Amino acid sequence: MLGSLVLLFSVTVAQAETLPMIDTHMHFESVPYMDLDGSRKTALVEMDRRNIRMSLLMSPPRDSFVAKRNQDVEELMPAVKANPDRFAVLGGGGSLTIMINATPADTVNDERRSEFRKRAERILALGAVGFGEMFIQHLSLPAMGPGHAYENVPADHPLLMLLADIAAEHDVPIDMHFDMVPQDMPLPPNLMSHSPPNPAQLTGNRAAFEALLSHNPKAKFVWAHVGFEPLLTRGPTIVREMLQAHPNLYMSFRLNRGGPKQPMAMDAEGRLKDEWLVLIREFPDRFMLGSDAFYAAGERVARGASGQGLDNLRGLVDQLPPDLARRVASDNAALIYKLKFSSGN
Fold it and tell me: Residue 185, SS3?
């Protein structure tokens, strides 16, 4: 009996190891300079090492325009043209986010809405498969370097509501960075070295986010960085509540290894925690992978997910039963983003 179980486990692991993966959240580095084609070449090397068959490329969310580092769909589409079977692009992180940040919620008028819609529809016309990386609250993290921005807009901002409508009209997803504050709380001590720019007191924002999710149930949101996020507020209980309440909500795993705290999906040894496996079983169609790797020229992952973070994507897939492994590794992302992708080995 034990031998049979060992054999079954070995087969399961072997199957998982050969599954191709889709990384739904990655970037080309722009600090201290941009070399987008060099970043593309680095990404292909790292993807090939791990059988990441396709990656969704997007700008980090910008709150203002800085010419030397700004990028959006226009700058990123050449990677798709060079490797159409390996990359797809999300747009708006270098334009729509700036428009939202520059427009106080109570000043949105018909002219601004028209400008915003025109830009969003232009992004899709240029070939983007969705919008991203958008932000609601984006904390500045010490590990991401001294220039890592703090960014915050109301989750129920009228232009975000409009973006939900546009995404629903075109049946494309929105990739969202949202550091959730369930209720007012002080900034955690480990982030105080970045205060400012982070505020010392954080204002609750969950209710406004749920208002955005409910605004247009046909709009699909992919909430990035589940399983490893700075505030440790997105634990299994809240994840379950949110997925139950909002059928249009999906999540992508960023998987650095963490400690015993529940919001960390992996323990320090790289084992998927039981409560997270239970969640994936409960919602098999709602999770995907999203490394948050920043690829720089010279064959290196500059920041975001480390090489180990990328390896942890494979580690997650390895630890799932075959039916769940295929869904999380690629099938869910291919379906939601309508990618031309075959998960056959």
Answer: strand
